[in-house]
Amino acid sequence: MKKILFVIFMLSIGVTSAYSQLGKIRNAAKTAAKTVGVGSGGNVDRAITIVSAAEAARATNNLTAENEYYLGRAVAANIAGSYKIYRNPALEAYLNNIVNTIAINSPKPDIYNGYHVAILDNDEINAFATPGGHIFVTRGLIACASNEDSLAAVIAHEVAHIQLRHALGAIRNARYANLFISEALAGVEAAGGNVKELSSIMGDSVDEVIATLAVNGFSRSQELEADVTAASLLASAGYQASGLVEMLEVLKQKQGNDKSRGFGKTHPTPDNRIANVKNNLGKYKVADTRIHRIERYNDIR
Fold first, then answer.
1. Which of 114, 179, 188, 295 has the most CB atoms lying inside 10 A of its own CB?
2. Closest CA to 181 of 191, 172, 194
């Protein structure tokens, strides 16, 4: 608990440059440590040591799978608090069977606590993927799919963001919380911490990820990379990679170049994405087994 309080105090210090503010941090650290009764050595010295450029990079680059999961769970808790979760056990099971099929045939089938899909009760056409395997798909986006392969394409795109660790790029841009995130997570986990504690400690880092997912979107290059990776994931799982093109065509019809909401707000234009995927479709040819998925797709609709 002392370590947690100490890290919270450190995260509240508005430092913008670890090197230029090191003296102030050292003094503040000793004051905080004395306040919570940690003493002047041990954890204090360790905390001061991690304030360096090398450790700042290590803090995010070396997040364990468990760290990443808890970070993603804190982000997911915020998303779930902003959107109503749509409860449809049959549809949830169907979507999770799809994501598990994609994941088990992917380069990263095993992540801490697995991949999970939840449905957002919203007509907006959108989807989100947090670090650690949490995927949200809106009812509006599900309604756009005309078959299982195009629906799987949406999920594969989100799995691609998770496996490419795109959301962690937002954390690396956080002002200073990234210096301490690994230490904070380790301390909370060791103390049996919960989402509320994690959200409080990670503060800016959680906000950065949420802003990227729901407001600013990933960079154009990241979205195009996720599309190409999604095509590969689909083919590896036995789906038609062309399902991604089908879905993008529908999104183009539904939203056009509207950048004010949903996918249009956080993704490149469908035209750019369609051209990018089509350029790579020749690499992902698999037997066409879509006929075997028609009945179960129609049943779930």
1. 179
2. 172
d(C-alpha 202, C-alpha 166), whole Å: 18
- For residue 198, give the amino acid letter: L
Neighbours of 140 (CB within 10 A): 18
How far is Cα 195 from Cα 71, in angstroms, rounded to an integer?
A: 9
Q: Which stretch of DSSP H or E encloses residue 272?
A: helix 270-278
Nearest CA-CA partner of 7 in 161, 148, 234, 184: 184
How far is 274 from 2, CA to CA, in rounded Å?
A: 52
Grouping H, G, I as helix, E, B as strand and the rest as coil, residue 96 is helix
Q: What are the structure tokens assigned to 285, written together?
A: 């040819």
The structure's pTM equals: 0.71
Element (H, E) at 116: strand 116-120
Give how far Cα 70 sits from Cα of 7, 10, 114, 142, Å.
Answer: 17, 20, 12, 27
Tell me: the pLDDT tens digits for 184-220?
A: 445 544 445 454 444 444 555 666 666 667 667 788 8
Residue-wise DSSP of 220-265: HHHHHHHHHHHHHHHHHTT--THHHHHHHHHHHHHHTT--SSHHHH
Q: Is 41 exposed, middle or buried (0-12, 13-18, 19+ CB in 10 A)?
A: exposed
Amino acid sitting at position 244: L
C-alpha triplet 160, 232, 275: angle, nearest 5°: 90
Q: Please give the distance of CA 291 from its chain centroid, rounded to a whole number.
A: 33
Cβ-Cβ contacts under 8 Å for 33 (sequence gap 6 or more): 6, 39, 40, 43, 44
Least confident segment among 38-47, 78-87, 105-114, 140-149: 38-47
Domain 66-167+215-300 has CATH 3.40.50.1220: no
